[in-house]
Fold:
Amino acid sequence: MSRFLHVSRADVGLPFVVLYLLDVSRLTETVKGSDLCIFTLVESVPDNLTYSEGPSLMSTYEAHKRLLDRAKQKIHLASFYWSLTDVDIHCPDNSSFQGQDIFQRLLDLVKAGQVDVKMAQNNTNNDTDELAKYGAGVRTVDFPRLEHAGVMHTKMWIIDESHVYIGSGNFDWRSYTQTKELGVLIEDCPCLGADAEKLFEVYWYLGSPNATIPDQWPDEYTTGINISSPLLVHYNNTEAHVYFSSSPPSFCPSGRANDIDAILNVIRSAKKFIYISVMDYYPLVIYSVNKTYWSLIDDALREAAVDRHVRVYLMASNWSHTESYMIPFLKSLYILNRTPHLRVNIQVKLFTVQSTPAQQTIPYARVNHSKYMVTDQHAYIGTSNWAGDYFKYTGGVGFILEQPDTGTNGTNLRRQLVHTFLQDWHSQYAQYVL
Ligand SMILES: *[C@@H]1O[C@H](CO)[C@@H](O)[C@H](O)[C@H]1NC(C)=O
Ligand SMILES: *[C@@H]1O[C@H](CO)[C@@H](O)[C@H](O)[C@H]1NC(C)=O
Ligand SMILES: *[C@@H]1O[C@H](CO)[C@@H](O)[C@H](O)[C@H]1NC(C)=O
Ligand SMILES: *[C@@H]1O[C@H](CO)[C@@H](O)[C@H](O)[C@H]1NC(C)=O
Ligand SMILES: *[C@@H]1O[C@H](CO)[C@@H](O)[C@H](O)[C@H]1NC(C)=O
Ligand SMILES: *[C@@H]1O[C@H](CO)[C@@H](O)[C@H](O)[C@H]1NC(C)=O
Ligand SMILES: *[C@@H]1O[C@H](CO)[C@@H](O)[C@H](O)[C@H]1NC(C)=O
Ligand SMILES: *[C@@H]1O[C@H](CO)[C@@H](O)[C@H](O)[C@H]1NC(C)=O
Ligand SMILES: *[C@@H]1O[C@H](CO)[C@@H](O)[C@H](O)[C@H]1NC(C)=O
Ligand SMILES: *[C@@H]1O[C@H](CO)[C@@H](O)[C@H](O)[C@H]1NC(C)=O
Ligand SMILES: *[C@@H]1O[C@H](CO)[C@@H](O)[C@H](O)[C@H]1NC(C)=O
Structure:
């Protein structure tokens, strides 16, 4: 079983002014934050991948360094596996510098003892054992015991309840130099930071010894920020509606959007186009003994394309751990194109990260690992691959931003993500599934 592929809510005194507004144009309730936040799209581009325009976004390494530099009180990390140093491979790799640097900075902060460092993880590992030795808090969220399936697959950083990273980047040296990753860096944003902290508190609670999933989560874990009442956030001199989603459903206290519901809502709200970049796309539950059909996302995409004539571009990853049965499912979407009278436009491509012979020897590297979707209405940035297991059993989170084009062309993170997607889509690394 591949370790990387299988991958498989606290403080009610909110540090911001909450205004419940009835925004008639949306016919939903909007929670208005008062912070002036900064949102930045961040990515990792594997070494030796080149684009005509060059990488245009902040690097994941830079984003993680910034977060550690800004920490004054708390560093709360929700993680899958840890492998920031390259001791996991037999010979040291010269592309592991960034991972080692992040580990050293975190260790220095733990040793200095001024900041409360807590980590919720999937399983014990060398990196967090080392950090725990110097006083970091570490808890394992035991999915086999809690859910009888799944893993803790979240990748989330929350600093001082104000700064947040959510994205595909694991706590792994490869995530800075060998895999393609996409995430969002949220800064100076206590209104969202406090809500992200509630996501973390769920993991922290469930990681305590012998914890069980409560029948009903206590009030301090509940949120009022969700699909039907997103937070109106000011960022970079503009505004957007934002909320977080979480998976599995049993980890969602009252008010918290399920990750799958968020994804389906984004697909169903699209009017013109849906662009998707995921490592794995399977309309199946794949990690059970017998694979079973799981078509929630696939159905929603077909419905968008057939019923609403929404243009769908889907890009999955072609790498050494791609299961052969992914391809026929992708082709079954692509072939709908060949029915002109239906006016269906679904394009499907596979993204291959090329490797040098030396790079080929690095296990679980050289893959586009991003998990995001962008439409004419929303940006969705997640931590889960798109197979049923992730939404039924596995721990993951999503960042959802709603910001359609307005008359003016100011800052718009969603539009920036469209640009990022199309750059990959039109690159030499993406080829049609034939
Ligand atoms: C995650 O935890 C599960 C259960 O403890 C374990 O079987 C699995 O190997 C872990 N995954 C990774 C990538 O470490
Ligand atoms: C790959 O990238 C590394 C680091 O940027 C560089 O040192 C090396 O020369 C590149 N190799 C090739 C084959 O382009
Ligand atoms: C954990 O650390 C030990 C001792 O430093 C080392 O021998 C081992 O290879 C490490 N294991 C992993 C998976 O990194
Ligand atoms: C890293 O190693 C690869 C081959 O293993 C080599 O091609 C590359 O030049 C090295 N890069 C640096 C910065 O040393
Ligand atoms: C957890 O459960 C084990 C076995 O049932 C028991 O021995 C242990 O005391 C419990 N720990 C706590 C902190 O309740
Ligand atoms: C979303 O939050 C609002 C409060 O802001 C709540 O009334 C509503 O029930 C929540 N929706 C869900 C699906 O939990
Ligand atoms: C898997 O499928 C086989 C054949 O249909 C069946 O005999 C078996 O009980 C199934 N296993 C599980 C765990 O559902
Ligand atoms: C998938 O990757 C393999 C190995 O790099 C390559 O030969 C193949 O052409 C790729 N397939 C597609 C559809 O890009
Ligand atoms: C905004 O940008 C889009 C695409 O970049 C362009 O088509 C549109 O005309 C611009 N709108 C305004 C008001 O500048
Ligand atoms: C927001 O501002 C920061 C700092 O100037 C910049 O790095 C980031 O790219 C901006 N975000 C967007 C979506 O334009
Ligand atoms: C690969 O990652 C980049 C962002 O880093 C994204 O724009 C692209 O669409 C992704 N492609 C695939 C196939 O996941």
About this structure: The radius of gyration is 21 Å. The pocket of 2-acetamido-2-deoxy-beta-D-glucopyranose (ligand 8) is lined by residues 318, 350, 352, 431 (CB under 6 Å).
